[in-house]
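Run log // design_07
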């Protein structure tokens, strides 16, 4: 197990989870917010994107009340990301991305518990001084959740992410220890 908070548990991603990722990342309702409805994943794409080694990348499955409901990843920022976001080399900065793939678990406060828990985990076990995310500017619900967890908007990233046929602005959100 990577970390746990009450009914929420995050465990390492395993090979057996590939079909869960296919299910979530081929659902248009989920894809509207993660990757785009024009970018559905099949098994081959899941294997390529989620099962290749990347230095420092930790991938996990989110469980709530013993049900597998989503995916999370966290990683130390690369030199390229540090430069883009405006961070030097001295701070310990981690990025994180997550999705709740089971839509029946949306709007129940689980995302807030998850984000607070991953931040706590990164500060405690990785000595992270900052944790960052870069949601698309239009994803107000996610941004509001992250702000409730102590993240602040620090920089607008113009045309930062390709989503559903066009580039979108993203917010760099930062949690500082």
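design_07 sequence
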């Amino acid at each position: 197990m990577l970390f746990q908070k009450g009914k929420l548990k995050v465990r390492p991603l395993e090979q057996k989870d590939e079909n869960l990722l296919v299910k979530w990342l081929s659902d248009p309702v989920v894809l509207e917010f993660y990757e785009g409805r024009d970018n559905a994943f099949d098994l081959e794409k899941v294997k390529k994107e989620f099962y290749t080694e990347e230095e420092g990348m930790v991938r996990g499955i989110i469980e709530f009340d013993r049900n597998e409901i989503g995916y999370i990843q966290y990683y130390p920022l690369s030199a390229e990301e540090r430069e883009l976001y405006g961070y030097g080399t001295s701070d310990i900065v981690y990025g994180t991305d997550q999705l709740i793939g089971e839509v029946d678990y949306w709007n129940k406060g689980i995302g807030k518990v998850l984000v607070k828990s991953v931040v706590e985990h990164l500060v405690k076990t990785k000595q992270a001084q900052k944790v960052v995310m870069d949601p698309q500017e239009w994803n107000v619900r996610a941004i509001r959740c992250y702000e409730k967890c102590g993240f602040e908007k620090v920089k607008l990233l113009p045309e930062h992410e390709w989503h559903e046929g066009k580039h979108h602005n993203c917010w760099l959100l930062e949690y500082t220890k």
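The longest strand covers residues 152-163.
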